[in-house]
Amino acid sequence: MERLNSKLYVENCYIMKENERLRKKAELLNQENQQLLFQLKQKLSKTKNPNNGSNNDNKSSSASGQS
Q1: What is the pLDDT of residue 26?
Q2: CA–CA separation, 22 vs 3, rounded Å?
């Protein structure tokens, strides 16, 4: 019984380390994904609206008028 306990303990430690490693990897991938999404949105907005500055000014003034 003691030997089985020790074996399960070691296996549990290994699983926790692997879980932590995968969690860190997932966090890095998520950050990379967010950055790529941000870049894509920037490119799409530049493609759609070459006059980006004037469109943003109109949106911000109308939004402030509604509050």
Answers
A1: 98
A2: 29
